[in-house]
Automatic annotation (TrEMBL):
GO terms for cellular component: plasma membrane
Protein source organism: Labrus bergylta (ballan wrasse)
SUPFAM superfamilies for the chain: Fibronectin type III
Pfam families: LIFR_D2, LIFR_D4
Protein name in the entry: Leukemia inhibitory factor receptor-like
Segment forming the signal sequence: 1-22
Membrane topology, as annotated: Single-pass type I membrane protein
Keywords: Glycoprotein, Membrane, Receptor, Repeat, Signal, Transmembrane, Transmembrane helix
Amino acid sequence: MRRTIMISWLLLFVSLFYQSTQDGIGKEKGVLHCGPQNMTLEKFDQMILSTWQDDPSCFALRDVLIYELVVLIEDQEVHHDKLAVLHNQIGSTHSWSWTPYLALECASHSVRISLRYNNRTSPWTQEKTLPGRGASKKPQVFPRDKVFEVGRHGNFCCIMPAGAVFNKMYMSGYNNSNMKTRKINNQTYVLTVLLDQPSNNSCTNVICQTSDYGACAYIGYRPDDRDLQCETQDLESVDCLWTVGKELPKRQLSTEYQLNGSDCPNGSKGRCSQRIQEVGERTWTLTAKNNLGKRELTDRADLMKRVHMFAPEGVSASAVNARNVTLSWRWKVLRYSNLNITCQVNVSHFETNTMSEIFGVGLLSVVVTDLIPNWTYNVAVRCGTTEHFWKWSNWSASVNFHTRGDVPDALDVWMQARDNQTVIIWKEPQSNESHGDILEYEVSWTENAERERLNKTKVDHNFLSVSLTLDPTEEHIVTVSARNINGSSSPTTIVIPRRKSDITNVETDGIIGSDGGFNLSWSVSSAASCGYVVDWCPASENCRVEWLKVPPNVTNTRVFSKSFKAGVRYSLSVYACTNRAPVFLERREGYTEEKRIEDSLFQSLKWNQRDSDVEISWEPVPLRNQPAFIYGYVLYVDNNNNKVLSVSTDDPKASSLTATNLNINTYTFTVKAKTAAGEEGTTTITATLNSLTDNLIEIVCVSLVAVFGLLSLVTILCFRHWSCIKHKVYPPIPTPVLRDKWLTTGENRCHHLRVDQFPHSEADVMDVPELHKPGAPVNDYVIQNVSAHTQTEKGYYNQPVRNCIPQPSSAIHPPLRSLFPNPLYSLTMVPGYQWCSSGPEPQGGTHLERSSDGYQPHSEAERSSVNQTEVRPDSPISCVSTYILLPQSPQ
Ligand SMILES: *[C@@H]1O[C@H](CO)[C@@H](O)[C@H](O)[C@H]1NC(C)=O
Ligand SMILES: *[C@@H]1O[C@H](CO)[C@@H](O)[C@H](O)[C@H]1NC(C)=O
Ligand SMILES: *[C@@H]1O[C@H](CO)[C@@H](O)[C@H](O)[C@H]1NC(C)=O
Ligand SMILES: *[C@@H]1O[C@H](CO)[C@@H](O)[C@H](O)[C@H]1NC(C)=O
Ligand SMILES: *[C@@H]1O[C@H](CO)[C@@H](O)[C@H](O)[C@H]1NC(C)=O
Ligand SMILES: *[C@@H]1O[C@H](CO)[C@@H](O)[C@H](O)[C@H]1NC(C)=O
Ligand SMILES: *[C@@H]1O[C@H](CO)[C@@H](O)[C@H](O)[C@H]1NC(C)=O
Ligand SMILES: *[C@@H]1O[C@H](CO)[C@@H](O)[C@H](O)[C@H]1NC(C)=O
Ligand SMILES: CC(=O)N[C@H]1CO[C@H](CO)[C@@H](O)[C@@H]1O
């Protein structure tokens, strides 16, 4: 083991030593004559080509030889290159070529070849020179008519005649920043240009000034074509299409095309066609070539999947009906009849377009349905293959046709209850619904219960409603149809429900519109089997409703009408559509837009004073005077422009407001309506309050005068007929003494009337001949508890009994219990009491106290004689005689 390692090391060392002895060109002179020999230099177009051989001594070398090549233009090194020669290539002829940037005519081009071996340069060098075109009598510019690619740098030289003076060299159309000129020898100048402008119609001139002669250059692009796609139209040839790259028209710059090796004469249009033997999968190769380069595009396809059909030819409406039409056409290519074809039909009228699609093998016709009768249409057809659809054909030429007429479409009918009438209304059929001029409408109706008794009426085509007087307690079925020249539409039926009065007075929610309409939504109703009907109308007027119908799954809609006006209150109702009569669901009222309420809204403002309160009242504001929702009212009270108080209510139905605790003064009352926008509709009224005491005095004075008048009358009457009265009243009384005493002394004045009490009277009836019907009993004086009580409350004050009843005669005289329910008396009693009691009784205390005092004994007596249980202590007991006798009172 150790031995073998030792041997290996020894061998390695020996080999290294051997190698090092061979190194170095200079060291082994015999061998190291190695270098190039037999060198040639030629030009080939604008390329230089050099060949050479190895010196035979090179065979001794075991390693790679490196030839270094240097190119010089006019002794200036412009290029450097290396060429490695492997051991087994030693001895062969080596060649090298290069295209210099400058035209070979411009200057001498030299190539120098030397060998480099182990980083040492062999002294054996070979050099050859290609001389440039020498100076002639005229300046010369090179290269000539060369093609350049846009964006590259171009070098042009100008060789001057001997002795000529160089002025300037330039390329026409370029500015100086893109050009640079330098001198490479006494006679030659080189212009370097950045070629950024393609030559247009001709080449671009390079001009060497001092010379009449210049040169021309073509600047263009390499082929840049893209997106090759091959298809077939007629199934017999292939059409390949592609996007053409930038191309210049000049021959030197134009691109030539070949498809699968065959020329494409019109290739520059991006299209090339070729006949084909069979349609099948195949690769299509397009070659685009110009002076600057070449490009290849390929597309692999089965042309059966690439059928781009021709448009149908001769499309015509072969059978025209009212609501359908048959379109037929021909095919340009017979083989299409074997294809499964899909066609699209574009049906248009006015600005509406509908597209329908059908398929079939070799399709040659189509029936277009759902057309409007008596209507003009325009159609066009295009097709493609159904399987492996590739592209639609072009549209066929379009065709016009006019459908036949038909009966009108069914009407949209609704109903409206107005007063005691039911108005059946329908929408005017649009021209696409009437299918001709409507001649008349036919309305028939019957009671649901007895359908056989059908009533019919015809309505002129100018009218869109009819008013029926139907029995409101019965359900009715109404059908409406329209008739045109072709006949009657299918009838539309509406069931009129029994009239329920409460529908007109349902609670309504407010709604505020937006953008001139309402966004209305409502809650789902299970009754709405066929949707909902929304109708609307100004809330204040008898109007023709407008309506719209909504499908069952929709519970909101936008209500819009051209007739909507701001500041008008609309009532919107939602009904459920059922297979019976429509069912009312809910109602809203509102404005599309509220408007300001003008001043003087309250036209009948009234005031009414109650003590120190004033009630201002008004008539309810009619809806048509409410251009906005009223949420309540405010009353402002001013006195000489000083605000006194304000009262308000949030009840929009209120029709009065009361200002309390006002003084006797003149006030301005201002009522305003509260709206969303503030307080509007200002209306004022001015009122002067009356003094309460003034009123009272007035009443009292009037009463006094009246009482005096009455008293005077009674007195006169009594006086005149005294003897008669006396005779009539007193004959049965057996105590003339007392009577005399009364008469003469007048001790108790009141008892002149008490004398009038009927001693024989059994009940509470008293005749007052003097006052009412002299000589006749007054039957009205029946005591009634209720009336007695009422009278008392109204101020019918009792006279103290004690005053009026003479103490000694109580046993003799009948009890005094008559009543005078005449309010006149009650009024006069108050002041009169004083006078009455001014006789024997001392003044003091109130009359009420007295009456309760004085009545007690009498009331007992009364109870004993009359079955009067509820006469209260203050029951009115009159003492009229006081008044009668007063003027005669001696006391
Ligand atoms: C060859 O010599 C040059 C200078 O003479 C030196 O720069 C270079 O590194 C050397 N190369 C090798 C491979 O020895
Ligand atoms: C170039 O011109 C210079 C002076 O103008 C002259 O000395 C030189 O010899 C000329 N060279 C050649 C190659 O003619
Ligand atoms: C086309 O209309 C006619 C007459 O209106 C009708 O008889 C026929 O059934 C309709 N055809 C189609 C496919 O709707
Ligand atoms: C044509 O294509 C349609 C759609 O793919 C297909 O339903 C129909 O069967 C095809 N007809 C024939 C005859 O292949
Ligand atoms: C219906 O109302 C109108 C006025 O509103 C009235 O003249 C007519 O008599 C009424 N008819 C019936 C049947 O009540
Ligand atoms: C078609 O409509 C026009 C007016 O719109 C009408 O004059 C004509 O009678 C209608 N034709 C038919 C066949 O209904
Ligand atoms: C139909 O007309 C007759 C006679 O005018 C009338 O008695 C009857 O009530 C009407 N029927 C209905 C349902 O209005
Ligand atoms: C209502 O139903 C129709 C057809 O059933 C449908 O086209 C529509 O989208 C539905 N609308 C809503 C809001 O669900
Ligand atoms: C083929 C050929 O021309 N070979 C010549 C190369 O040059 C040597 C001397 O330099 C000639 O001896 C060869 O005949």
